[in-house]
Amino acid sequence: SRSRLQALDAAHHLHPFTDSQALHQKGTRIIEKGEGVYLWDADGNRILDGMAGLWCVNLGYGREELIRAAERQLRQLPYYNLFFQTTHPQATELAATLATLLPGDMQHLFFTGSGSECNDTVVRMVRHYWATQGRPERKVIISRHNAYHGSTLAGAALGGMKPMHAQGGLPLPDIVHIDQPYHFGEGQGRDEHEFGLERARQLERKILELGPERVAAFIGEPIQGAGGVIIPPASYWPEIKRICRQYDILLVVDEVICGFGRTGHWFASEYYDLQPDLLCMAKGITSGYMPLGAVAVGGRVAAGLIGGGEFFHGFTYSGHPVACAVALANIAVMQAENIVERVHTDTGPYLQRAWASLGEHPLVGETRGLGLVAALELVADRQSKRRFASGLGAGLVCREHSFDLGLVMRAVGDTMIISPPLVITRAEIDELVGKARQALDLTYQTLMN
Ligand code: PLP
């Protein structure tokens, strides 16, 4: 029963990214079942999952093709590793399939078990690469404030989340941060194009300050996800590309959220015309049904790694065969149902139009989005775009109202975020936006009375 599980949970379970005290006062929400874009909780309430779990359940819940692929693989070969010159068909097939979907000259894949492990792999890989080029002093990796690259030590160090760094020892040496291209939050009143250029040029300033001979790579999410769906001004990425080329700095793109159709492209690197040296993916690679990540490696780094002797790096669950089998089935369904195309031409624009209509709500200072990811900024005053006092927790109030109405939205501070399954229909989008509007109304009543 619900109360028994809540008591056991409070007694024994430490949750990720959760204030345990607040949790115990309220009791854990227990999710028991999923089907399509919907979840059911332990009280039988139906909830539209506007976040696709953690931005990952792209094909929605209960897909038979994925379930059957996992079951078949569990019977055939439930586990084997990729170490010491062995492979299994699923990892090899998946690497070859991904190579056909990736941008630029990315023809090689290194498998991991998660997004965080991808970013740990990136740190070791870029330093190893420069060592193979006789440049071991190229160690520094430049990232951005408010980026999210995972929770392992290297992932959290690359990330720019202040509360994570404040909990000790981070960032690690030779990992530094520049400002993010967050126009609404940090560029109010400034020309968007100029703001984008100025934020990108911080990379150049940082490289010159450190000395280009010390810098190994720049890493960024095409659209910062967990930082608040921060869509950079159009001027930003071209300038970052120019700077990386000019100073011979590797470009690493973290597509853990953006990859696999989220933006209406297989990878957002296509949308921004990036040709990264390394690209991280996870989450949507299996629609979240199995844990899996992969680092795609472009020609130049691949040549260095292949010629550079053994790379002493890997995980027991690198390219787990069941996860790879599910990823292959996931990609096959996406291709058979033209999911990426549908997001690009139909459900993406439809959602963005409907979502933009929330911009007229008195609590909303901005709406933004691309494909099937979107955000809105809660403000105390629409005209001046003045924000609520930070202690008020406006975002959390909105998130709780939304959940009670049967919609999962995420709050990052006072930024409300959605990232629904890519199979969402127009009718379900109408329901999502309708519930978001109701949640805003209730939030208005709670905060303004
Ligand atoms: N990178 C990005 C951009 C992410 O959004 C996330 C997770 O949200 C990660 C990395 C970490 O992935 P994981 O939680 O699978 O370790």
UniProtKB/TrEMBL annotation:
Gene3D superfamilies xrefs: Aspartate Aminotransferase, domain 1, Type I PLP-dependent aspartate aminotransferase-like (Major domain)
GO cellular component terms attached to this protein's record: cytosol
Keyword Membrane belongs to the record: no
Keywords: Aminotransferase, Pyridoxal phosphate, Transferase
Top-rank taxon: Bacteria
PROSITE patterns (UniProt xref): AA_TRANSFER_CLASS_3
Family: Belongs to the class-III pyridoxal-phosphate-dependent aminotransferase family.
A molecular function (GO) term: pyridoxal phosphate binding
Protein name per the record: Aspartate aminotransferase family protein
Cofactor(s) demanded: pyridoxal 5'-phosphate
InterPro entries: Aminotrans_3, Aminotrans_3_PPA_site, PyrdxlP-dep_Trfase, PyrdxlP-dep_Trfase_major, PyrdxlP-dep_Trfase_small
Pfam family, one: Aminotran_3
